[in-house]
Write a structure and sequence with these properties.
alpha/beta; Rossmann fold; Dna Ligase, domain 1
């Protein structure tokens, strides 16, 4: 009997990437969009059987439990809210589905403070940090510059991220009433480059596949949705790679993941965080020859995932998040010629996929025209780039 693939995530290129990765292997997916969307704009593909969205998380669990099947179905999460929701209901779902999980502990693991403690236990380096909570005084004796982050990606978002150069700048930032209730204030490391290990963990870390790393050299912004090479890991990554696998095993996590690092000017690697779900950049790994969602599907359905891993052949790719990258031009981080040259040079994209581009060119043209209006305002000095960077 055919096992269904059910993808739960945001109306975002992350979800679309998993749909396409599975679709390229002949597996069409049922998609549930979270949080609720009345109109789904981004996730459109010929590889989708059905797509739904529910106003209440409880309805998602009810929908899953109501599915009738003689075999376990395969669940894949593409956003933090989905990963947390599924793992919180692990005991209800485990008999009917194979899902990303840490057996009920995943929401706690998503706390950056918990991650940092776990990272230190296995020997990974972390930047110095302190935690600030709303309603309390600003911590003293902070060494600037610092970068701020929501303590949990479930409670916060990218607007909680900013680089502050002084006491006054940090104090003004923390006055924002819309900030996450708990903010991690972390020493800002002068980096040589940033990188991600994107992979899949099977059976609580018994088997961990990390084919390579995203090599991100970004001049200004602090987000990692950016143009980069996806490369094999050379010997300078071996120690960090080993400790990363120790970290994943210690967490007990099974599923798709990414782990974010930066390397400083002296060649020292610093752990930043782990994402316990498919990463938004992960389509580059499929394009590089390792189809991680399909490996998870084979593992979940009793297929020969070991042969799939053994037969996968790595090739370096150049990744471009074409819509986000155009914003980098709009706000002055890169020139138009750099955007154009890099976009043409790339062979892996967030939105473009050969043979599956529903209204892609119309959407891209409309997006460019709308962003050029913003570019004019930037040139006139009426609009500035977001403080946290673009991606």
């Amino acid at each position: 009997m055919r096992h269904n693939a059910i993808i739960i995530g945001a109306d975002h290129h992350n979800t679309l990437g998993v749909v396409r990765s599975l679709g390229s292997k002949g597996i069409n997916s049922d998609v549930i969009i979270i949080p609720y969307r009345n109109k789904i704009r981004k996730v459109k593909s010929k590889y989708i059987n059905s797509i739904k969205s529910f106003p209440d998380d409880r309805q998602i669990i009810s929908e899953l439990l109501g599915m009738e099947s003689c075999v376990k179905q395969v669940l894949l999460a593409t956003c933090d809210i989905a990963s947390s929701l599924l793992d919180t209901n692990y005991d209800l779902l485990k008999d009917k589905f194979v899902l990303f999980n840490s057996k009920g502990h995943l929401t706690d693991l998503m706390s950056k403070e918990t991650m940092c403690h776990l990272a230190m236990e296995v020997g990974l380096n972390i930047p110095e940090y302190t935690i600030w909570s709303k309603g309390t005084d600003m911590p003293k004796n902070i060494e600037f510059p610092v970068i701020t982050k929501a303590i949990s990606s479930i409670d916060g978002n990218k607007s909680d991220t900013a680089v502050c150069q002084s006491d006054e700048e940090l104090r003004n930032f923390l006055k924002n009433p819309d900030l996450c209730p708990h903010i991690q204030i972390e020493k800002f490391i002068q980096k040589e480059f940033e990188f991600q290990f994107i992979g899949v963990s099977l059976d609580g870390g018994e088997t961990i596949v990390i084919p390579g790393h995203s090599h991100i050299v970004r001049p200004n912004g602090v987000q990692n949705t950016y143009y980069f090479q996806y490369k094999e890991n050379d010997k300078s990554f071996l120690t960090t790679l080993k400790l990363t696998k120790d970290f994943i095993r210690k967490s007990g996590y099974s599923g798709l993941f990414s782990v974010e690092f930066l390397r400083d000017k002296d060649g020292k690697d610093y752990f930043l965080e782990m994402n316990f779900r498919n990463d938004g950049n992960a389509i580059c790994v499929t394009d590089a020859g390792y189809n991680l969602p399909y490996i998870w599907y084979l593992y979940a359905t009793g297929g020969n995932y070991k042969t799939e891993i053994a037969n996968s052949k790595f090739r370096s790719v150049v990744f471009c998040p074409e819509f986000f990258y155009f914003k980098d031009y709009v706000y002055g981080e890169i020139s138009f010629m750099t955007w154009l040259k890099d976009t043409i040079r790339a062979n892996s994209y967030t939105d473009y996929w050969k043979g599956d581009n529903h209204l892609y060119w119309i959407r891209l043209l409309y997006f460019i025209m709308s962003q050029m209006r913003i570019k004019i305002q930037v040139i006139r000095g009426k609009v500035k780039a977001p403080k946290s960077g673009i991606g």
